[in-house]
Amino acid sequence: MEMAERVRVTVGPRGLLEVEFSGFCGEDCLEEERQLRARLEQMGLSMRVTRRTMKDEEQIAAETDRSGSHGRVPVDY
Amino acid sequence: MSEIASFETEVVFRRVAAGGALEEDPGWALLRDAVAAVARERRGQVTGAVRDYFGRVHACDLALTVPGLPGGLGLEVSREDGRLRFLYDPYEGADLAEELQAEILQNFSALAVGRALAELHYEVELEEGRPGGRRVIVVRGTR
User: CB under 8 Å to A20, separation ≥6 — which residues?
Assistant: First the structure.
């Protein structure tokens, strides 16, 4: 079973965004972020990154456990 | 690998900046919805003009009047650079006007994110909460 791809966006006052990508392989999350930003830009939402953190193996393993997913493709970091 | 990223945002209608009509910009309908949502929540009205302390009327692209801000909060999109600007009389309810601006920008961002995720084939859920009294909207996409 493949792990679902998830995006969780927390929108704070004045439109501050915290975007969390889960379940993406390798650097797919960066491409997904690029596509999301491009669409938001078309809609009039211009974004400037203030912080970016790549999840570590422990965080990813915890997400995989929570989702009950098996058969995840291992990725070299 | 997956990531967490934080962003500051600004509303800029690129098509308007390029000479297009505001009504044809994909963000315009979202902005109207964002303002209408604040009007519903605050028992206000969406109009097309604001009034200053002396009663002078200023037309704008959109305006919101709510109890406590009788002159209203105006929204104008610059035809030169496409940037969204807010207008209000600072002598009447400046704090409330700031709150309304924050809510409009928050609604606009949440609506835009929900729409963008749907276009990217996610199933989208929106949830509003007030942890610690601070209004937060969470948009979740799953696919």
Answer: A6, A7, A8, A9, A10, B2, B3, B4
Element housing B27 (H / E): helix B26-42
What is the pTM for the complete model shown?
A: 0.89
Q: In this complex, is the C-beta atom of B4 within 8 Å of any C-beta atom belonging to chain A?
A: yes
What was the ipTM of the complex prediction?
A: 0.91
Give me the tens of pLDDT residue by residue for chain B, a chain 143 residues long. Answer: 688 999 999 999 999 999 999 999 999 999 999 999 999 999 999 999 999 889 999 999 999 999 999 899 999 999 999 999 999 998 888 999 999 999 999 999 999 999 999 999 999 999 999 988 889 999 999 99
Residue A54 to residues A12, A25, A29, A48, B6, Cα–Cα distance (Å): 21, 12, 10, 17, 12
Residue indicated by tokens 């709510």 = B66
B 122-141 residues with CB below 8 A of A? Answer: 122, 134-141
CA distance B19 to B21: 7
Which amino acid is it at B11? V
What are the extents of the domains in chain A?
A: 6-76
Q: Which residues of B touch A22 (CB under 8 A)?
A: 2
Strands B84-87 and B123-129: unpaired
Surface of B (38-77) touching A: CB under 8 A: none
Residues in chain B: 143
- The minimum CA-CA distance between B72 and chain A, rounded to whole Å, is 19
Q: In what order do the strands lie in the sheet with B3-11?
A: A45-54, B3-11, A17-22, A6-11, B136-142, B123-129
